[in-house]
Amino acid sequence: MQQNAIEDILNYFALEGSLKSATPYGNGHINDTYKVVTETADGERNYILQRINHAVFRKPRLVMENIERCLAHVSAKLDQFPGVRTMNVVQTKEGRNCVRTFDGKWWRVYDFLDGLDSYDEVSDPDIVFEAARGFAQFQNMVADLPLPRLHETIPYFHHTPMRYATLEEAIYMDVRTRVHEVGAEIDFVRSRKHLVAHLLNRFLNGQIPERITHNDTKINNALFDPKTKQCVAVVDLDTVMPGLALYDFGDMCRTTCNPAPEDEQDLMKVKFDLRMFEAAVTGYLDTAHFLVPAEIEELPFSAWLLPFMVGIRFLTDYIQGDVYFKTHYPKQNLDRCRTQFRMVELIEGCKEEMQAIVQRSAKATGRY
After folding, report:
1. What Å distances lie between residue 352 and 195, 254, 282, 294, 300, CA to CA?
2. Closest listed residue to residue 341, CA positions, set 367, 299, 305
3. Per-domain residue ranges for the chain?
4. Which of 191, 303, 308, 338 lies 20 to 30 A from 260 at CA?
């Protein structure tokens, strides 16, 4: 995007100083993100400018309403949680939290959280432990958010039966004539169809409660103090909405227990590291005091479910013609799918060890 176009967008917002630079930032699959630097009388100020992908988030104002409600609730509690930092939404000059430009695109600005570290990949169990604590802390802080219920900004986001149904529809339609390429992947999913509704059934039976969840607990959405190595902030709140806490835990394991990139083509490099899983379990149980026994019991299953579900999403997108996730080369979504399904296979081979880790950690934290 050209600098003058970015400057035109920034002119809508009540920023301090004059624009010095705006450069692409991060590697997210959905939104376009820029780090913005301005010059002020007191030095430089840093901001994050984001285009909200309204093909994914069809009601951007509801997304921003959820975010502002959660941030206000968390900010009011910061005195109770020393060291925790939170984002701040920069208002437009008209006092709004986002703007729709003449070309129909939606934009927002945050203050940049300076001086914190993030990780796209992680090999240190201590970092995983801290990330798990950080996401659990966020869930703790929003657990008592007053009614009304948050908006479901992407309906059925982690609804695995719906994801499965969407895949079957994509297979039937085959709009890009790709189904013949992915027979093995389709068989892989169909052979596990009986498991897709397991957590939802326990929720519908009243055994697992609904909570406010982050729903995108990738390791790079946790920010760390470089000195203490503690997770002090959680970002990317677009998908904060009602859900199951287990979805957050499972997605965190999906992105921390495998050292290989999400689109790794050599599946021999894909692993499921039980050390990382134990760090995630220990960190999560250390802080997620709200969990009921059924949620603790299902921690290993959630670590299986999320790569399975995300693999279904990548497979569906590939069959449909790569219309949802950003891709940088042909068949990247298929590579992503295969990496997820390889993780599923590896998890299936160590279920007993995972259950033992959860039981041991739960006893150590007094949960059993």
Report:
1. 17, 18, 17, 17, 9
2. 305
3. 3-111, 125-364
4. 191
Q: Quickly list DSSP for 291-348.
A: --HHHHHTHHHHHHHHHHHHHHHHHHHHHHTS-SS--SSTTHHHHHHHHHHHHHHHHH
203 and 163 Cβ atoms separated by less than 8 Å: no
What CATH number does the domain located at 3-111 have? 3.30.200.20
22, 35 contact by CB (below 8 A) = yes
State the helix-helix crossing angle for 299-320 and 183-190, rounded to 10 degrees.
140
* Cα dihedral 83→257→189→348 (10° resolution): -120
Smallest Cα–Cα separation from 281: which of 262, 257, 309, 308? 257
Please give the Cα distance from 222 to 236 (Å, whole number): 9
pLDDT digits over 27-67, tens only?
665 678 999 999 999 899 999 999 999 888 999 999 999 99
> Which residue's entry shows tokens 């499965």?
164
Q: Is the pTM of this model over 0.85?
A: yes
Cα–Cα distance, 105 to 99 (Å, whole number): 8
Provide the pLDDT for residue 29. Answer: 59
- Give the contacts of 231 (CB within 8 A, at least 6 positions apart): 130, 131, 133, 134, 135, 137, 222, 223, 224
Residue 256 and residue 128 in contact, taking contact as beta carbons nearer than 8 Å? yes
CB burial string 48-57: b at 16+ within 10 A, e below: bbbbbbeebb
Enter the tokens of residue 82. 């020393």
Assess whether the previous peptide bond of 148 is cis (omega < 30° from 0): yes
pLDDT of residue 110: 97
∠ CA 333-336-338 to the nearest 5 degrees? 110
**115 phi and psi angles, rounded to 5 deg:** 75, 15
Amino acid sitting at position 221: N
As a whole number, mean pLDDT of residues 187-198 equals 98
Beta strands 18-24 and 222-224 are unpaired
- The CATH class of 125-364 is alpha beta
User: Which residues, at least 6 apart from 254, have a Cβ–Cβ distance to it below 8 Å?
Assistant: 303, 306, 307, 310, 340, 343
